[in-house]
Write a structure and sequence with these properties.
The structure holds two protein chains of two kinds. Chain A is globular, with a radius of gyration of 22 Å. By secondary structure, chain A is of the alpha/beta class. Chain A has ten helices and 13 strands. In chain A, the strands form three sheets. A six-stranded mixed β-sheet of chain A has the order 6-7-8-3-9-10, sandwiched between helices. A four-stranded antiparallel β-sheet of chain A has the order 2-1-4-5. In chain A, a hairpin with a 2-residue loop joins strand 4 and strand 5 (about 65-70). Chain A folds into two domains: about 5-220, P-loop containing nucleotide triphosphate hydrolases (Rossmann fold), CATH 3.40.50; about 220-285, no CATH class. Helix content of chain B is about 80%, strand content about 0%. Chain B has helices at about 1-50, 50-55, 65-95, 95-100, 105, 115-145, 155-180, 185-205, 215-220, 225-230, 235-255. In chain B, helix 7 (about 155-180) runs parallel beside helix 11 (about 235-255). Chain B has one domain (about 1-35, about 75-255). Chain B has eleven helices and no strands. The chains are: A alpha/beta, B mainly alpha. The interface of A and B includes residues 87 and 102 of A.
Amino acid sequence: MKDKVIEIKNLTKSYGKKRGVDHISLSVEKGDIFGFLGPNGAGKSTTIRSMLGLIRFQEGEIRLLQMDTVKQQTEILKQVGYMPSEAMFYPSMKVKEVIRFAAKARNMDCTKEAEKLCGILEVDGEKKIEELSLGNRKKVSIVCAMQHKPEILILDEPTSGLDPLMQEAFFQLIMEYNKQGCTCFLSSHVLSEVKSYCKNAAIIKEGKIIKKDTVSNLSQSNMRKIFVRANGQEKEFSYTGDMKELIHKLDGMEVEDVLIREPSLEEIFMHYYEQSKENNQEGSETKH
Amino acid sequence: MAILKHELKMNIKLLFIWMICVGASCLGCILLFNGLKESMEEMALAYAQMGTFSTALGLDKMNVSTMEGFYATEVAIIFAIGGAMFAAMAGVMVLSKEEEGHTAEFLYTLPLGRFVIVFWKYLSVAVQIFLFNFGCICLCLSGFAIAGEMPPGRELLLFHGAQFLMHLEVGSVCFLISACCKRKQTGAALGFAVLLYVADLMCRIVPDIENLKYVTPYYFSNAADIFVKESVDGTMLWLAVWVIVLATGLAAVIYQKRDLS
């Protein structure tokens, strides 16, 4: 069994009365590219910020590279590259100054790697940060996160603001670093990129993990999308269960056309969301 | 060290603007002295008989028609308030600007540790205050050289030493405010610096609120008192040092435990 480089146990964080995350647990193995899926406000950033020691959590434990994030934060950060969703730097600084500052703070000479990354991502070091668009700031953020060749890359919605060509170049870099042993924790709400690049994934909803599995298992759900045209009417719905029963039900109808297909990851994602909603409603009804 | 250099580089413009504005105002006043000297002699008599107003400004102790008196009662006020305002601004911005500018995520995910960052940031405030004081003193000294008159060196040194401590105290309290806020409270900090000056004036006029002298650092660093007594109140100095240590320590503790946005 591979080493677990990220271990989150029972993490609970609330902001006063507001929910953050509620008793979430997950682990990521070395060399994995782990997708962390959820819509805005689900708790993705709270989890990441807890992992990096930016916020203090009320309950639970987080270990990165077998080190405690509360007690050994500095040691952990030496081996972590982080790319925030909002890439913000000091506006009056030049791009090359920001990159050099990030390397200096690590007591490292990352010139060679930084130059390579700047070349691939077409980053102009002479420009001032205040002159850059969100996409270009994101590129600077990628260079700062990767130039020291970290053990873990934590990426919070990394592709927002990047054009499709740069997204492709970015994921090529991720794959290259991953081949060299780097573990990636990728938070996103773009399901296609999770499906294309991640090996494992977790879905978070309203501060709780509702599903954890390999991306291929998540995609191979027994749910099917059914399209039926009967009695001049068209209907599309999701179906999970015995196929014989479905055929039996359709038998009684005047079916003109039927299409049964595998759902996309987006549809599976929505399915888990709706399932979790139904479970919650049932739970609250039982309580009453 | 990287943080210190970074902070100084980021604030060098602001430091120079304030240093030139306050220092040049002091220099201008010193250069005006020779031209005003004759009329000052008449004014000195009038000032000395203005009761509580004279007491508040130290005009009852110093002769405004001498360079020493003029410097202690006129120029020193510009230097004290200007410096306190700069110190307040430098202190109040240094931590909260990271959250307001959304750069906290970048800075605090570098492997430096929050305590280390807070330490270097505080040091950068102290260095800026020192450079401000140094620059202004240089301008004042050049003014004395041009005017051909200079207040006694020992008292001048004591006054500027006390002023540096006073500015550092104001800066430290504002540093504590900065550790508690997500946004730069520049207006509040400038108001705070002025309020402390008003408190100094008030406690010199109204005997019932005399204890305010322990609250406002303008009291122990008052030029007229220092030039007359030729010393600085030791108790007040220790109190200032305690306030600095306490404010900085509290800021570090609070900032260590705070969630950064």
